[in-house]
Specification:
Layout lengths: L12 H12 L2 H13 L3 H29 L3 H11 L7 H34 L7 H12 L2 H20 L1 H29 L4 H9 L8 H14 L6 H6 L8 H29 L9 H13 L3 H35 L3 H22 L20 H28 L2 H7 L8 H28 L5
This protein binds 4-fluoro-L-phenylalanine (PFF).
């Protein structure tokens, strides 16, 4: 096990923030958030998302970064060493294991969708989306996902980029990538939004995103919002614990976590403001589900002036966002294996990334040859779910809530207030202590209750 004293640290707070925001901002913001908002009533969903992210996801984010910094190792070993130092049950280690395995599973299919984004970037660069109609755009997308060999190539390329970055280690791999890619991502996004502001559909998009229509809200809306918040802010899969483990003691964790959550939410909203104006300008449907970004939006690129440039910018943006998230999904397992086997990081990144690649092939085939194979279909809950759906559903409905609830209980109830204050570098009597108390109350009560709600909904979908 690596000694904490030898732990590498981020070169700067900026590097840490870019890596953490890079992890948070991903397919979840640009691909998933707009269509989930579209399907769940627009503005009302956005409002609920803001509240649940602030009250539920953010407190866990703070706890996770803190636990990572306290342990100073991979998520599994960080928790292992914390329970030993503080004399707690070994069962807590399951949150490290669950998160790391969950991240590995998400990585396997995340890479497949990342591959779609890379593929669409090259289509945009080549012929653009000129002349696409609703029908031909649908055909382009279904043609892509039903061709396993080419999907596999894109999946390979995406995973390969990811492995190479993680092989480089903290400074020469992750930091170097995020410090370049994240500013690029912000520029691309600003370019897209500033263009969208000038379109006819902008005010309709604004109304759609920000004018709440509560008639569409049900209890399910809250739970969908919580689940989306977990995924989007990258909690409960070890990633933020991992990045926290490289953080030096002088950096304020609550402040950093607030910056990460705000940046993540801002990108999701800006992605909505980049996409929906195009959708409304060309009278397309805003609630198209997962096809929104890959089927609907390209039609708009094909019809508009500057569509070529915007199409390239958009899919490059999506690819960059996906890569900076994927590296944080690979890092926890790689760090654990490095500590356990002492082999070189290069070899381990290759073996673990390669294994996630192999697992990803099952997701690739879920869209073609195995599209009617429902591995757990005999359970009502998994009826009609392909391997890809099964992975996604299992991690987001079970693994993330389980790890999230354990994290809230561990920091809220199991660790003492003194230990927590010390870990945050805050002394009793400072003004900031008030915020710590609020945070602890959320972790102790609101967060666990809300997460139980996610479980109940996953198990008995018709109950809530
Ligand atoms: N936050 C990423 C997204 O929104 O796409 C996905 C993700 C990355 C989730 C890393 C969890 C994680 F640990």
């Amino acid at each position: 096990m690596a000694a904490t004293a030898l732990r590498e640290h981020w070169s700067s707070r900026f590097a840490f923030l870019m890596a953490a925001i890079g992890s948070a901002v991903g397919l979840g913001n640009i691909w998933r958030f707009p269509f989930i908002a579209g399907e769940n009533g627009g503005g009302a969903f956005v409002l609920i998302y803001l509240v649940t992210t602030a009250l539920i996801a953010l407190p866990i984010l703070i706890a996770e970064i803190m636990v990572g910094r306290m342990g100073g190792q991979s998520p599994v070993n960080s928790i292992y060493s914390l329970v030993r130092t503080h004399n707690k049950s070994k069962l807590w280690v399951w949150m490290g294991i669950g998160g790391t395995v969950g991240a590995f599973i998400v990585l396997s299919y995340y890479s497949v969708i990342g591959g779609w984004a890379l593929n669409y970037t090259t289509i945009a660069l080549g012929t653009g989306f000129d002349g696409l109609t609703g029908e031909s755009s649908g055909a382009l997308f279904s043609g892509m996902i039903s061709a396993p060999v080419s999907l596999m190539l894109w999946h390979t390329l995406f995973m390969g980029i990811n492995i190479i970055i993680v092989m480089g280690g903290l400074h020469k791999g992750i930091e170097r990538a995020v410090v370049f890619l994240m500013p690029l991502l912000f520029l691309l996004l600003l370019f897209m939004v500033s263009h969208a502001i000038g379109t006819e559909g902008f005010s309709a998009a604004w109304t759609f995103l920000f004018e709440p229509d509560f008639s569409k809200v049900t209890s399910k809306t809250y739970l969908v919002a919580i689940g989306q918040g977990f995924f989007s802010v990258s909690i409960a899969l070890g990633a933020m614990m991992m990045y926290g483990s490289y953080l030096d003691k002088s950096t304020s964790i609550p402040q950093s976590a607030v910056i990460i959550a705000i940046a993540d939410t801002a990108v999701a909203l800006l992605a909505g403001l980049a996409i929906f104006p195009l959708v409304f300008t060309f009278n397309l449907a805003p609630a198209e589900g997962p096809g929104l970004v890959f089927v609907t939006v390209p039609i708009a690129f094909g019809e508009m002036e500057n569509g070529y440039l915007l199409g390239v910018a958009f899919f490059l943006l999506l690819s960059v966002a996906a890569i900076t998230s994927a590296i944080s999904l690979l890092a926890p397992a790689v760090a654990w294996a490095e500590e356990k086997y002492g082999a070189t990081r290069r070899k381990i990144a290759l073996i673990i990334g390669g294994s996630a690649w192999i697992l990803g092939i099952a997701s690739v085939l879920s869209f073609s040859d195995w599209s009617e194979f429902y591995p757990l279909g005999f359970f009502g809950l998994y009826e009609g779910k392909t391997i890809f759906d099964t992975f996604d559903f299992s991690v987001t409905s079970f693994v993330q809530p389980m790890v999230g609830i354990m994290m809230a209980l561990f920091v809220g109830w199991s660790l003492s207030r003194e230990v927590v204050l010390d870990a945050l570098n805050i002394t009793e009597g400072e003004n900031r202590v008030l915020w710590v108390s609020v945070w602890l109350i959320l972790l102790r009560f609101l967060v666990p209750i809300a997460i139980v709600g996610i479980f109940v909904r996953a198990l008995w979908p018709n109950l809530l």
